[in-house]
Each structure stands twice: as C-alpha cells, then as structure tokens.
What does this fold into?
Amino acid sequence: MKISLVSVPAAELNVDALAVPVVTGQKLAGAALELDRAMGGVLSEMIVNAEFRGRIHEVLPMPAQGKIAPRRVILFGLGAHHDLDGQRLRSAHHELVRASRTWGYKRMAVMRSDALGEDTLKAVVEGCVLGTFERRSRQTGQAPERREIDEIVLAGFGGSREAEVLAAQENGEATNRAREWQNAPANELTPDAFAQEANRIAQRHNLEIEILGPGELKSGGYNLLLGVGTGSAKPPRMIRLRHHGNHGLAQANGAVLALIGKGITFDSGGISLKQPENMSRMKGDMSGAAAVLSAIDVIASRNVPLDVMAVIATAENMPGPSAQRPGDVLVSADGKTVEIVNTDAEGRLVLADALTHALRNGATHMIDLATLTGAATVAIGHAASAAISNDDEFWAVVERASREAGDRVWRLPIYADYRILLRSQIADLRNSEYGEAGTIMGGMFIAEFAGGKPWAHIDIAASAWNTNLELTTVLHGPSGAGTRLCIELAELMARGGTDSWPPTPRNA
Ligand code: BES
Ligand code: ZN
Ligand code: MN
It folds into this structure.
C-alpha cells in the first residue's frame, strides 16, 4: 500500500473514498467544514442529529452523489479529545482502514482533524498500516473477507515529509510482521525455525548473528534455558543479532542497547501442565521475541546510530520423560542456583540466561519483552503492557519511547518487601511464589540477573494478544506489542534520549 501526502483540497481528489475524522462533541471545522459545505451540509447534519457521534471506531460511509470528486465520504470517530493518546489515535485509523477494506475501496484519502496537530502524521500512518494486517490464512479455498487498498493519500499534514511517512510505514509493517510470527502455529515456528527467521533477517542487513544450540548452551552454562527446553524434542536456541551503529558517536556515550525477547514457541506449562482451555494461545508465548526481532530488522535497515543487539531465548516448554521437575535445582549461566517450584514459570528462567548472555556480549542497557504472567491481565488488562525497571533514568527514556510509539507501558513498583517472594529454602532463588504480586515477582526474578545495569522489563502477556472483544481500542488477536517501543527506544537513545518532546494531543 502506497501512502503519500497531498496539498490540494480533499474535495478535488479522484479517490474511491475520502475519510473525515470526527472528535466526539466537536463541530466540523477547517477543511472538514469546507467539505461539508460542498456536500450541502449532510456531514454536519449527521453529527448535529447525533446519528454520528464520533465515538472511537464508529465508521460511516456515505455516497458523495457527484458533489465532490471522491465517490464516497466516510465519517470516522476519534472519540473524546481528552481521551485521545497515540494508541487510541492509531486504533481509530486502524479501524477505518479495516472497514474500508471490507467495502473494497482501492484509492482512499484521509483528512487530518482540525482538532489535531500536523505532528500526528506518524500515528496516522502507523494506524493505517496496522489496519492492513491480515493473519495469513491456512484455510483452503476461502475467499478473503477484506481486500487490499492500493493507495492512501493524506490531506492536511503539509508537504515534504516523505521520509517521515516512509519511516512510519516501516514501523507499522514491522509491527505486522511481529503479529504474523505471533500467530504462526507452534508446529511451524519451532525454536530452530525461529532461528532461521533470525538468520534471514541477519543476511538481509549483513548483521552479526550467533545461534547457540544445545552443545554451545551447555558449555556456556545456560542451564536455565536448557532446563526449560529439555522436555521437548525440539532443542532450544539462544539467538543473538548485533547491529553496529555507534560509529564513535558521542551522544550515544558508548551505550549498547540489548533488546531481549522471551521466545517460548509453545508453553504447555511442562510438568506443571496448564489447563486445556485456551492452551492453544500459548503458541504466542514467543511474542516478545517476535517484537525484538522485528524491531532490530528496522533498526538495522534504518542504520540507527546506536549499538543494538537482539537476544532471543527460544525453547518449547513441554512435559515428557526428560522434562525438568518441580523441586529441581539448576545453576544459571551467571552462577546463581534456582529452585524450580513451578515448571510453568519458565519465562523468567530463559530470560535470566538471556540477560547473562547480553551482559557477556557487552550490553550496557537492557529491555526485555515477555509474555510472562497471567497476572498482568489481572493488573491492567489488555490496554497496556506492565513494566518493571531498576533505573529511573532509563525508565524515563523507555516511557518517552512508549508515548512516541503509541505502545503503552505502565510501571509497577519494586518494593524491598517483595524480595521474600523470591526466597528459597535450598537455592539462591525460587522461580514461583505464593500467589500475590505475580507480575512484580516475575520482574524481580529477572532483575537479579541484570548485573546492576539499567534494565526494564515489559510484561506483554496481556497486551500482545487481545482476547477481549469488548475492549475495542486495543488491536484484537496478535498485536505486535513492544515492536514500535523497541524501535523508538533505540532511536531515542541514539539521539541521547534528551531532545524535546514533539507536541502531541494530550497523553499522546
Ligand atoms: N506464558 C505464561 C504467561 C501467560 C499467561 C501469557 C496467559 C499469556 C497469557 C507464563 O509462562 C506462565 O505460565 N506464567 C505463570 C506464572 C506462575 C506459574 C508463577 C502464570 O502466569 O500463571
Ligand atoms: Zn510462558
Ligand atoms: Mn508458563
């Protein structure tokens, strides 16, 4: 899909449909009001009569009846202005594009709302691209329900911003690529297949890549990753890609950012077997790995001036004659002993070894993305990722990146009081707790392996896969959560993480 900017009046565009954003409770203004006049006032009539309220995800197509060049006008809602942030703005455009694809429009124009600044271009482009996502169908002989749009032209965003459009498009497409990996069945996307995907990306950009198999993992002492994978016939892998982007640039201060992903290709729970309900969803337990792989793809292709590595710990968590048992004690790569109380708390185990691997390879800052705890859904639901960090300064940069990317994160506390949850009678740490503060405990376990370096943990267990159909403002199914966050974080750190924040709608 081509996306371009135009400066001619939207009413003169030769397109199948022209989309007009509406903010709840606001009258049409500026270019939208001009359009309304050209249409004989039918748009404002729908709004004044409250037949169209501008609620987020409300989409209404109308025939233009030859009054303007576009054949249809679509009113689409952005919701209330004070609720609008980057994530909701993307979601509104996502819905517009999805609906338009069911109607089969090929060329579309989208106007900027008078209530929003030109700086919302990135969110608009990313939202539109997210709306083009279609899970690859494995159904035979089914006609697709939605068609593809050839071109979207954006009106009201000024000109000479092609580079910004292109970058935003890449961000959206990277998110969609992560969504496709998330959705891939676990019999296709095994740890080895995942490593091959990483290899393809490395070849494309000439990235340094290292893939550790069982032999290398054993000699490196990565026993926690090995332990999780031992019940499966598909052996684990530790994947590391490295983008050398910091060519002595002072503003990056020699920082080496590690993007670390949990890559459990299937999580049955192991001997601590999960309930059968929704167990199939656990094919998505590699969502964190999908996000970091997709992110480093963009970071490398854009040649972001920062040293960035992606580290993916991938394994299949299965029961079996050689599976690890509750009560087992393992020695992690950094030497700490861990009592496996629950084999279903496997994410923190593979991540612990992944952090050690990142540190051994020179990471100075680390962010891990993981579908770690069901408790994250209880804590904040699908609307945001839950986060833990050991460093306020680094966290401030992560939070900025999150806002800029429209990829929400919300930080939970680390009180010393919680440390008791990690205490084992027989080992340095235990991997599971008594049942409270589950998301925090998972994060605090991983923090033990951060070597005191600035680190943030993003628990995407809820945000990576929205199963709540009522919660319409979050992408349904696989969402690619964390992908744009990682891209943005690398870019922000490359710029020193200190430049002034672009003005955006509230919270955006
Ligand atoms: N992959 C799961 C977490 C998860 C649950 C992700 C639901 C997405 C949706 C993780 O490995 C897990 O099983 N966590 C346990 C931890 C517990 C045993 C301490 C959980 O949340 O129940
Ligand atoms: Zn898991
Ligand atoms: Mn688990």
